């Protein structure tokens, strides 16, 4: 995808800051950068949504909130309530972590209900479901994607960025093959430079979660540190 210049990647990027010690000043900076560079959204913890929404009032940049983050192991109704409250506070997209333990135990009906409860709480707001691919077998990744496809979520997403590793080209391609052409695939975790970003898009990603968005659109050729 050499024809895709670095700046054109801005609309693929959820400009991300999920550190537990993120300050209000850092969130405000994240929002200013997103507005300046034309990123699709900022991705923050739900407690930061009111500030981000205030900072981005009047801009086209969306506020994306993570839910049940980063473990996904909370009660389903708690996740749904967090999503509902985040949307009320100004979130325009929701990224939830599915219940990884349930998936690995083969409790597929429970996994589906967990996602369905959050999706219902989201209403018309797009829901992305984080699989945490580094903890799953390929068969489990496929099953998670099949559940998400059946529920018609907006996106499946590779990773939180807080576990053993992040997105891989192979996982993005597997997810794209499984969900088909109509559901988004978000690559997140370790997407920190332009070549990696392009590789993820070529593999089927339609959104990138990264704390290195400015480096990516600047054409950075080697990864730095961060989400």
TrEMBL record:
<feature type="active site" description="Proton donor/acceptor">
    <location>
        <position position="95"/>
    </location>
</feature>
<dbReference type="InterPro" id="IPR011343">
    <property type="entry name" value="DeoC"/>
</dbReference>
<dbReference type="GO" id="GO:0004139">
    <property type="term" value="F:deoxyribose-phosphate aldolase activity"/>
</dbReference>
<dbReference type="GO" id="GO:0005737">
    <property type="term" value="C:cytoplasm"/>
</dbReference>
<dbReference type="GO" id="GO:0009264">
    <property type="term" value="P:deoxyribonucleotide catabolic process"/>
</dbReference>
<dbReference type="InterPro" id="IPR002915">
    <property type="entry name" value="DeoC/FbaB/LacD_aldolase"/>
</dbReference>
<dbReference type="Pfam" id="PF01791">
    <property type="entry name" value="DeoC"/>
</dbReference>
<comment type="function">
    <text>Catalyzes a reversible aldol reaction between acetaldehyde and D-glyceraldehyde 3-phosphate to generate 2-deoxy-D-ribose 5-phosphate.</text>
</comment>
<keyword id="KW-0963">Cytoplasm</keyword>
<dbReference type="GO" id="GO:0016052">
    <property type="term" value="P:carbohydrate catabolic process"/>
</dbReference>
<keyword id="KW-0704">Schiff base</keyword>
<comment type="pathway">
    <text>Carbohydrate degradation; 2-deoxy-D-ribose 1-phosphate degradation; D-glyceraldehyde 3-phosphate and acetaldehyde from 2-deoxy-alpha-D-ribose 1-phosphate: step 2/2.</text>
</comment>
<dbReference type="GO" id="GO:0006018">
    <property type="term" value="P:2-deoxyribose 1-phosphate catabolic process"/>
</dbReference>
<comment type="similarity">
    <text>Belongs to the DeoC/FbaB aldolase family. DeoC type 1 subfamily.</text>
</comment>
<feature type="active site" description="Schiff-base intermediate with acetaldehyde">
    <location>
        <position position="157"/>
    </location>
</feature>
<protein>
    <recommendedName>
        <fullName>Deoxyribose-phosphate aldolase</fullName>
        <ecNumber>4.1.2.4</ecNumber>
    </recommendedName>
</protein>
<dbReference type="InterPro" id="IPR013785">
    <property type="entry name" value="Aldolase_TIM"/>
</dbReference>
<keyword id="KW-0456">Lyase</keyword>
<feature type="active site" description="Proton donor/acceptor">
    <location>
        <position position="186"/>
    </location>
</feature>
<dbReference type="InterPro" id="IPR028581">
    <property type="entry name" value="DeoC_typeI"/>
</dbReference>
């Amino acid at each position: 995808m050499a024809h895709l210049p670095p700046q054109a990647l801005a609309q693929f990027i959820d400009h991300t800051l999920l550190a537990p010690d993120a300050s209000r000043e850092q969130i405000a900076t994240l929002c200013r950068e997103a507005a300046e560079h034309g990123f699709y959204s900022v991705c923050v913890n739900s407690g930061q949504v009111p500030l981000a929404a205030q900072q981005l009032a009047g801009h086209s940049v969306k506020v994306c909130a993570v839910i049940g983050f980063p473990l996904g192991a909370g009660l389903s109704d708690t996740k749904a309530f967090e999503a509902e409250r985040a949307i009320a506070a100004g979130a325009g997209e929701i990224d939830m972590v599915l219940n990884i333990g349930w998936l690995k135990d083969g409790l597929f009906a429970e996994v589906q209900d967990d996602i369905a409860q959050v999706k219902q709480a989201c209403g018309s707001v797009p829901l992305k479901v984080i699989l945490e691919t580094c903890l799953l077998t390929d068969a489990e990744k496929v099953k998670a994607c099949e559940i998400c496809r059946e529920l018609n979520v907006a996106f499946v997403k590779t990773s939180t960025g807080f576990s053993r590793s992040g997105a891989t080209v192979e996982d993005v391609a597997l997810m794209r093959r499984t969900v088909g052409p109509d559901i988004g695939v978000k690559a997140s975790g370790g997407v920190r430079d332009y070549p990696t970003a392009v590789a993820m898009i070529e593999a089927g990603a339609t959104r990138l979660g990264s704390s290195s968005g400015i480096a990516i659109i600047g054409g950075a050729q080697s990864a730095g540190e961060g989400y």
